[in-house]
Design a protein that fits this description.
This protein has a domain at about 1-60 and about 185-215. It contains seven helices and six strands; from the N terminus they run βαββαααααβββα. The protein has helices at about 15-20, 55-60, 65-85, 95-115, 125-145, 150-185, 210-215, and strands spanning about 15, 25-35, 40-55, 185-190, 195, 200-205. It has a four-stranded antiparallel beta sheet with strand order 1-4-5-6. A two-stranded antiparallel ribbon has the order 2-3. The chain binds zinc ion (ZN).
Length: about 220
């Protein structure tokens, strides 16, 4: 048996996984229904199945859906970016980059507006097509080229930010495996409303369970 690290006794301690499986049960209830069988209408009841959980089982359960874990990983990436930006002020990106990009977008805009030249006798269809093509080609070319005009400090800053975010995402994905493995070994003391991991010497109030499971 395992003793609670706070009260030191074993009598109120249970394995969390068995509390949750014991506190989760299938329910069967009857619902009013109507339908048709062989052309005859009937009114009656049907049996419905559902899943219910005790409040404690709900509180001690770990998220099961992909969506919930994806949200946790995303949150981690966001936090990593905030920390990175606080520690590393944005270096100058150089004025050439935004200028080249702006000129590129102006050419694209020109290309888009040129579709209306079709009705202009001075241009006609071939003139219109030529102007559109030149506008688009030059425009997208410049927009694509623009990032090479960033200063190297800024490029390094951007690269490091991307690496930081990728690492945070990776950690976020590993988080699920670590938290789930810990949850499988987790105990709960009813007396203290405490969850704890005897082998790792970790304990926390049940409201803080997820934070504890996700600790590095
Ligand atoms: Zn206790």
């Amino acid at each position: 048996m395992v003793a609670c690290p706070r009260c030191g006794s074993q009598d109120a301690v249970l394995k969390v996984s068995s509390i949750v499986s014991g506190g989760t049960y299938e329910t069967t209830f009857e619902m009013p229904a109507q339908g048709q069988i062989g052309g005859h209408k009937f009114y009656g009841t049907v049996q419905q199945k559902g899943v219910a959980q005790t409040a404690l089982a709900q509180k001690l359960n770990i998220p099961r859906s992909e969506k919930a874990w994806k949200a946790l990983a995303d949150e981690r990436v966001k936090q990593a970016e905030v920390t990175y930006r606080r520690k590393n002020p944005v270096p100058k990106m150089g004025c050439l980059y935004p200028v080249v990009r702006l000129v590129g977008w102006l050419f694209i805009l020109l290309g888009m507006l040129s579709w209306t030249l079709e009705n202009d006798p001075k241009f006609g269809v071939p003139g219109m097509l030529a102007t559109v093509a030149v506008g688009y080609l030059l425009g997208f070319g410049l927009v694509k080229l623009a990032p090479t005009f960033k200063l190297s400090d800024y490029k390094a800053w951007e690269r490091d930010l991307a690496v930081t975010k990728a690492q945070a995402l990776q950690e976020g994905i590993q988080l699920r495996a670590r938290a789930s493995a810990r949850w499988d070994r987790l105990y709960y003391c009813h007396r203290d409303d405490l969850v704890f991991l005897p082998t790792e010497g970790l304990s926390a109030p049940s409201s803080d369970m997820m934070r504890m499971l996700m600790l590095a």
